[in-house]
Write a structure and sequence with these properties.
The complex is a heterodimer of chains A (173) and B (65). Chain A has 173 residues and is an all-alpha fold. Chain A has six helices and no strands. Chain A has one domain.
């Protein structure tokens, strides 16, 4: 009897954890996109007005933010510094792979990052600024979509996690 | 008769209704219906076994072999 109760409690707790983790990923996505937008806006200034080399500009632009987005920018800068023969796109791809599990980016944001990487550092300042403005606009649209998705999905995943755990417990008892 | 099964069916019913509401509020009506159908199938599996027992008992009582 006690064993069954304990087992059921563990199953419900596991279901709840899974639900809250999934809900957390949806809740965190708009925040990370906002951080990326702030980094890219800073990067635009560093590229346009200060003419700073790209690795240093990437590190400086990530100063205001915390968490995986900062790690992503810093890892890109570090890869560019250490392996000078790599293009910014390859450096960003490697950073996405390394920091990937902690970043909750979906496909559109990742593709935008790679697209940004393939155009960064190859054209003159004005063109890069234009390109950064376009990417920031796109990211703002994606942010709006992600806020809608968050409002829809966070509650649903929490409920589904808890109820799914209870359901499995009932089925197993 | 074992009362546990009745409580189990009641529990599954309540949880399925919560699933249905949560999925419908998230705009996933098709998944909500699928979920209800899955719950119905699970409960039907339990009930069919009891129905089988009932028919066997009826056959036994009235000697319908």
């Amino acid at each position: 009897m006690w064993l069954k109760l304990m087992g059921s409690a563990f199953v419900v707790a596991a279901g709840t954890c899974i639900g809250f983790t999934l809900a957390g990923r949806y809740a965190e996505r708009p925040q990370q996109i906002r951080q990326l937008i702030s980094c890219l806006t800073a990067l635009k200034s560093y590229v346009g007005y200060v003419s700073m080399p790209l690795p240093e500009a990437l590190v400086r632009s990530a100063h205001g933010v915390e968490g995986p987005v900062r790690e992503f920018m810093e890892h890109t800068a570090e890869t560019l510094k250490k392996s000078g023969w790599l293009s910014p796109r390859e450096a960003m791809a490697s950073a996405l792979q390394k920091v990937g599990p902690r970043l909750v980016f979906h496909r559109p944001e990742s593709e935008l990052c790679l697209l940004l990487g393939s155009n960064l550092g190859f054209t003159n300042r004005e063109e890069q600024q234009k390109y950064l403005t376009m990417v920031v606009d796109e990211l703002q649209k994606i942010e709006q979509d992600s806020i809608k998705l968050r409002d829809q999905n966070v509650k649903m995943y929490r409920y589904l996690g808890i109820c799914g755990g209870m359901m499995i417990a009932i089925l197993l008892v | 008769m074992n009362l546990d099964l009745l409580f189990k069916i009641a529990g599954v019913g309540i949880l399925i209704s919560v699933f249905h509401t949560a999925l419908k509020q998230a705009g996933k009506e098709d998944m909500a219906h699928l979920c209800t159908l899955a719950g119905f199938a699970i409960v039907l599996l339990w009930v069919v076994q009891l129905l089988g027992q009932l028919f066997t008992t009826v056959q036994g009582v009235f000697k319908l072999f």
